[in-house]
Amino acid sequence: MSRVSKPHEIVERALDLSTADGCVVIAEENSSANLRWAGNALTTNGVTRGRTLTVIATVDGARGTASGVVSRSAVTPDDLEPLVRAAEAAARGAGPAEDAQPLVSGVPVSPGFTDAPAETGSEVFGDFAPALGDSFARARSGSRGLYGFAHHEMTSTYLGTSTGLRLRHDQPNGTLELNAKSPDRTRSAWAGRATRDFTDVDPAELDAELARRLRWAERRVELPAGRYETLLPPTAVADLLIYQYWSASARDAAEGRTVFSRPGGGTRIGEKLSELPLTLRGDPHEPGLESAPFVIAHSSGDDSSVFDNGLPLEPTRWIEDGRLERLTTTRHSAGLTGLPVAPTVDNLVLDGGGERSLEEMVAATTGRALLLTCLWYIREVDPASLLLTGLTRDGVYLVEDGEVVGEVNNFRFNESPVGLLSRASEAGRTERTLPREWGDYFTRAAMPALRVPDFHMSSVSRGV
Fold first, then answer.
1. pLDDT bucket at 4, cuts 50 / 70 / 90
2. CB of 95 closer than 8 Å to CB of 108
């Protein structure tokens, strides 16, 4: 059975075993490497390997087409036939699928489909690890402790269908999170980066930024809840707009259930959301943020359909020049709403036409403002307005007349990302960023800092 142990061979064997009217097979080979450290010393490191296989069977019936989906990890060749039969049984036992469409057909084989999967390992940290060690030494001499982790993974996805598609995509994904703490642990600062290969991550640069933030925090200022002019860094903007992106289903909007629903019926497509020239877009070929150029759907939902597997993805502008341009659709929901087919793309970029860095935006501040580090524990309060609540974390700083003069207490906030876009008075320079709250799910983002004149800090939080 070892002769069918390679990913593309497993896909072909599963398709050969299928007796369903249609079949989609998704084989994913994953490898990962990680480093962890605490108190300026490495604590653990490791490398893992894994395989997941998803089989989607479709069965045509008098009332429509049904689908059955079964996924298994650590699949061996001996597991294939039981897995295929389980998917077929699930399809035959299900009612017609609401999102049923003909399976995608087209270019039959993508380059490298029969090649071995790409892999990562500890060598990805070859230059990063020594530089991190140098940062440990600097941190010790500066009486601060560094804590955090670096993670890199490579996922090779092989997608085959009974209609002839044979597609493959290799997705590298790296994240770095670094915390600096004062000796008494009363002051903390955070920085994070997303990377494809760790060649563009400089621990010394991050450590210097964290040291500066710890110095800012030597002066403590207590402020009450209220509305403040606030500078949101790219990581915080990403967290808010990713949630907005996840909430941008055209079907939900057309049914009157979201912030993108038009009163009286329909969607808000075409409406102006911001006076700034903001463009929110996704592009599978975005340099540095490359993602799968075709749909990979393990299940069906409001913004995904297993029947769309293999559908080509194109650059998509969700907001253009401040105006809502697209909402996410499958082929099925596009037909229901009369809107263009616009599947989700696994990256998100906001361009605002600004050229200032966050530091330059701080320097240009007149009067008093708050500078955030990041947001966390973000939860939805009201889908009709997309009101979100959450907490600030690891440093909220007071800016007075262009200078950071100290650290203030943390807050709970209540804000809608759609509302923030309508009220933002300035967008800075777009740069790649790591969303802190959603970094386990969505890492390919590029955002500008935003200046919001009246960000709502709804209550004081005593958390870190």
1. low
2. no
